[in-house]
Amino acid sequence: MKHTPHTVVLPFYGYAAIALLAATILLACSTGAMTGHYFQPHVLAITHAMALGWGTMIILGASHQLIPVLIEGRLYSNTLAMLCFVLAAMGIPLLVYGFYVFDLGWPAKAGGILINVAVSLYVVNVVLSVQKSGKESIQAVFVLTAACWLLLTTGVGLLLLYNFTDPFLSRDSLAFLSLHMHLGVIGWFLLLVAGVGSRLVPMFLLSKYSNTSQLWWMYALINGGLLLFVFLFVRFPESGWHKIAILPLAMALLIFGVYCFRVYQSRIRKRVDGQMRLSILSILMAFLPLFIIAVISIGSAVVGNSPVLPLVYGFAIFFGWLTSIILGMTFKTLPFIVWSKVYEHQAGLKKTPQPADLFSHRLFRLMALTYLAGFLLFATGLAWKNIIVLNFSAPLLVTAAFCYNLNVFKLVFHGRHHQ
């Protein structure tokens, strides 16, 4: 088994870091839009910057590194991985710009096409890597299935983009936004995070706990819940029955929580560092969107639909659960990638630093504190529709993103000064 070259993986991390900073700056400049309806140009732009530029790009980079570990073999093609990066890196800004100025003409459509081609190359690379290795772990099945859901998500997104300007679907694009979003959030992000997390959390906590049966149940419940959601959404669009899908998803999250708790109990490494504490917190934060969905369902039945709660829901997913796990896991995976690049061939020959020595822990703590404070305050400001709280908390999120960038690029450029 051979690691994927750092030249393939590091660009994804660097791009994602810049995308996070750009998204938080856009958020700070658009607080006024956050007190209105969720279907607004700036809200759409920020959502796609977070979902694609931040979450998807860093997961693509990390998975190119992790796939060889999961299948105990090489990545099929480093060239496909680099093409995936280049096409996605060009497509995402075009799409985000199109949403921000709400010009859904050729730049936005070109961006959507480039993103779909990039994702298609990623899916092909994953499929051929698994096929070539001949070894399928449960985690590899999670990654492969999540990649297919991602391709479906971006494909539906491209159809909706064209439907905005040249309507050909049975309903307008706004009616399908919930379907598009949840295909990505559940099928791509949740499935992949659960699968990869079931391997990384035991590895980083030095735990031998494993329960394949629990993982298969989790896999079945996430995919079954999403398929149920899609069927009910398409078949009974006005009924609201698709919200029933929250039940199997909640069960899957409970199983994942129990799995991680067992891992934590049986860990050899008793001291848990800040990176893992933030990652463990993200497991708890995964339940927050489900709670908000329950509140939305009950509230709409009692007092009618609220335009505020969907914004809080989306914010809890992209700036809460997803961001918290990435902030923590970045500084568990990226230092090892950089260490392998610079020091692996020197190990045993002379004294070398540990991976954890390659980034600033002081910056990490400042990032974690400003992020958690900014997230809690901004979510509160959204719920109260309080522009003062939003304007106060948004700079905290920008500060957290800036600290993250400083630490990431400290790692990315580490090898240049030690070669």
Concise structural overview:
The chain is mainly α.
Description:
With 419 residues, the chain is an all-alpha fold. Helix content is 77%, strand content 0%. It contains 14 helices and no strands. The protein is globular, with a radius of gyration of 21 Å. Keywords: Membrane, Transmembrane, Transmembrane helix. The chain crosses the membrane at residues 12-33, 45-67, 79-100, 106-128, 140-162, 215-234, 240-264, 276-299, 311-331, 363-384, 390-413. This is Cytochrome C oxidase subunit I.
Give a quick set of tags describing it.
single chain; 419 residues; mainly alpha; Cytochrome C Oxidase, Chain A; 14 helices; 77% helix; 0% strand
Q: Please count the beta strands (DSSP E, at least 2 residues each).
A: 0
Mean pLDDT: 90
User: How would a crystallographer describe the biggest sheet?
Assistant: none
**Approximately how much beta-strand content do the residues carry?**
under 5%
- Corresponding CATH superfamily: Cytochrome c oxidase-like, subunit I domain
Overall CATH class = Mainly Alpha
Number of helices: 14
Poorly predicted regions are none
Shape: globular
CATH architecture: Up-down Bundle
Taken in chain order, the helices and strands follow as HHHHHHHHHHHHHH
Oligomeric composition of the shown chains: single chain
Overall structural domain count: 1
Q: Specify the helix fraction band.
A: over 70%
Q: Examine the coordinates and then state which fold CATH places here, giving the name of the CATH topology.
A: Cytochrome C Oxidase, Chain A
Structural class: mainly alpha
Radius of gyration: 21 Å
What's the end-to-end separation, in Å? 25 Å
Keywords: Membrane, Transmembrane, Transmembrane helix
Protein name: Cytochrome C oxidase subunit I
InterPro entries: Cyt_c_oxase-like_su1_sf
Transmembrane segments: 12-33, 45-67, 79-100, 106-128, 140-162, 215-234, 240-264, 276-299, 311-331, 363-384, 390-413
